[in-house]
Specification:
mainly beta, 1 helix, 3% helix, elongated, repeat, MORN
Length: 234
């Protein structure tokens, strides 16, 4: 849905509340707009200012702070698809710290910039029970950890939300770590270290490098980590 709110200038909405000079809405009250939206909260200088609740005709709701008709400060937005956002806003955009719960029960908690995940944050995948913990750039995960339900962990760089570049993968079951370069979700070259039973120096580990492998999806309930789980971000 569009997060844009139709402004309610005088003459385009009905007002139940105090009027200054007989026509300027002021203070607490309720505005009902021509498009079916409504606002129950504080008006100042004919604009939404302060706390209030905005109900959209399509069923969406915003409850929180306003400044000059725009969502600014702390607020909670409930969307028609049952997703919710709770956190900081600036000029009608998610901006700052916030938590977004998606219709499939995925959760992102962290920093936002201009309605996009940007900065430090954690994305939890409800289906696979795995999570990203790290850095985001313009909505894309670029570096940090991918922690899996079975305790396996990938740590390193990402491209298009997939492991790519320098990194390492730590298997919880056999305490083996593979390190080196990853591309297109595959471990392409590097070495491996098994601890604590058999610790290999990096140079020796490179000589003992197993063939590149493609990690299998979590959906098949295998014990292997998922590097190919479909990811849909909104």
């Amino acid at each position: 849905m569009s997060e844009e709110e139709s402004e309610g200038p005088a003459g385009e909405f009905s007002w139940s509340g105090e009027l200054v000079d007989g026509w300027i809405p002021y203070g607490p009250g309720k505005a009902t707009y021509a498009n079916g939206d409504s606002f129950d909260g504080n008006y100042d200088d004919s604009k939404r200012n302060g706390k209030g609740k905005y109900t959209y005709a399509n069923g969406a709701e915003y409850e929180g702070n306003y400044s000059q008709n725009q969502k600014t400060g702390y607020g909670i937005m409930k969307y028609p698809d049952k997703s919710t956002y709770e956190g900081a806003w600036f000029r009608d955009m998610k901006h700052g710290e916030g938590k977004y719960t998606y219709p499939n029960n995925d959760i992102y908690k962290g920093e936002w910039k201009n309605n996009i995940r940007h900065g430090t944050g954690t994305y939890f995948f409800a289906m696979s029970m795995s999570q990203f913990i790290g850095s985001w750039l313009n909505g894309t995960y670029i570096a940090g950890q991918w922690v899996f339900r079975n305790g396996d962990v990938y740590e390193g760089s990402f491209k298009k939300n997939k492991p790519e570049g320098k990194g390492k993968f730590m298997f919880a079951a056999n305490k083996t770590t593979v390190f080196g370069k990853f591309a297109d979700t595959r471990w392409t070259h590097g070495g491996w270290i098994r601890t604590p039973e058999n610790v290999l120096e990096p140079k020796e580990a490179v000589r003992k490098l197993p063939p590149p492998r493609h990690f299998t999806p979590v959906q098949d309930r295998s014990s292997q980590p998922c590097f190919v789980t479909p990811m849909r971000f909104t």
